[in-house]
Amino acid sequence: MFKKGTTARAILGSFAFFLVAPAVIAGFVPFVLFGWSMQPPLFGLPVGRVVGMAAVVVGLACLLDCFSRFALEGRGTPAPVEQTEVLVVSGLYRFVRNPMYVCVLSIIAGQALLFGQTLLFAYAGLLLLAFHLFVQFYEEPQLRRRFEGSYKSYCQHVRRWWPRLTPWRGSDSQTF
């Protein structure tokens, strides 16, 4: 329907992948496993609900920004079957290499605080392990092969999980 590499295809593909991956992992699965019913606030601190709501809202907004960057700047999707044409290193990618995963974990941790569900923290921990293994053994080797020196330089300056305090400017600071 849409020619490979077109913006429309990238937007539709990113939207479809959003529904298949993060929406299921951070929305559907927590709902099915734990429900979205309010339990007593964690640690007896009602302010945790406010912090949780903020984590969900900020995590979702940042996740949508990352998806849009893949479609509009990278001309592709986060899905392994329709990868970007260029390495996206703008926006949150200037601070941390894997902001999408960090956003998903933020959304889940936020739900744990919002709904008072301690088991959601355990779910987030399992996801962190799964994300780390996927990134280290599949995603990063693929990116090293596809983008070679530019990805190597990016990795030397931007950490995998722990954000930088200042944005990395790189040689182009947008895309390679």
Write structural notes for this entry.
This protein has 176 residues and is mainly α. It has one domain. The chain has helices at residues 7-20, 22-34, 47-72, 99-115, 119-157. Helix 1 (7-20) runs parallel beside helix 2, helix 1 (7-20) packs antiparallel against helix 3 (47-72) and helix 4 packs antiparallel against helix 5. The radius of gyration is 17 Å and the shape is globular. Mean pLDDT is 91; it is low at 172-176.
Fill in the keyword field for this structure.
disordered C terminus; mainly alpha; globular; 176 residues
Oligomer: single chain
Note the overall shape. Answer: globular
Sheet with the most strands, sense and barrel status? none
User: What is the residue-averaged pLDDT?
Assistant: 91
Number of domains: 1
Spell out the helices and strands N to C.
HHHHH
Strand content: under 5%
Tally of helical runs: 5
Question: How many strands in all?
Answer: 0
- Poorly predicted runs: 172-176
Structural class based on helices, strands and sheet pairing: mainly alpha
For the CA atoms, what is the radius of gyration?
17 Å
Percent of residues in helices comes to 55-70%
Distance between the termini: 28 Å
